[in-house]
């Protein structure tokens, strides 16, 4: 009897699969930014601009004056940072949840309580501000620059709203640092904190509850349609909560280029309310309630938001997987875990 030994290459196959899945996730994130940025531009113009009226009029005005390129202004920074941002925020959320489960139940894989999910959402929202504020600031400054940066336009009075000030995202960031320092880079961070902290709670908790509700008992994974529906519902709820402070954040971050209208978050809120009443909080409701893949509230990352057993979310360098073994046939396979579901949780 001749015994032939063959090298075990299963780990190489797993690495190849993980690489393919990672690339697929990155492609989805990039696609979500490209698809959603025109909506984000319209939202920003309605929130911080003047004379646009309604969503339809804003779309026509941008297209007539700036062509299709006008809808994609300021996209490069979100495009470059979406992978890092999503990985950090969802990683913080899941790891905080696992830590709380370990402390409270002695098992990091235990079903999280509603209080644990809330606290994990608050931590994720707080961390997101440190990464997201500079990206949002540069994006909004470029979105509000309605005229192209060239020699003819650069001679215009820079106090005229929309006149060119920045050549691009790097020049924008460098100019803000030179004129306003680090404090200028984090302009609007208080408003963003007041937006993201409750916003993540309003996203993660409805997402988990709705997914748990529509996923049959005993299912190893939810149906993709269930993930899509849960993400859409959670996104709508989240943006309904976020919109008022998102308006304030956009106005503060757009301010300071052509004039200094607001002294701070509270002043912006008071001025907006005195001039427009509660209508100021509804400037972009129709646009925001679309499943816009904006970085800040995770709407576009709904399929990669939560894990069944609270494992960290996949990052740009690694994708979590399940190893499924067949004891009868002595075979195994790797299944992607590129989405994130909390199958059940407890209420304190």
Automatic annotation (TrEMBL):
GO terms for cellular component: mitochondrial membrane. It is a multi-pass membrane protein. Solcar repeats lie at residues 23-99, 112-213, 222-309. InterPro entries: MCP_dom_sf, MCP_transmembrane, Mitochondrial_Carrier. The keyword Lyase does not apply. GO terms for molecular function: transmembrane transporter activity. It is found in: Mitochondrion membrane. The keyword Transport applies. Residues 298-317 are annotated as: Disordered. Keywords: Membrane, Mitochondrion, Repeat, Transmembrane, Transmembrane helix, Transport. It comes from the Eukaryota. Pfam families: Mito_carr (PF00153). Belongs to the mitochondrial carrier (TC 2.A.29) family. This is Solute carrier family 25 member 48. It comes from Zosterops borbonicus.
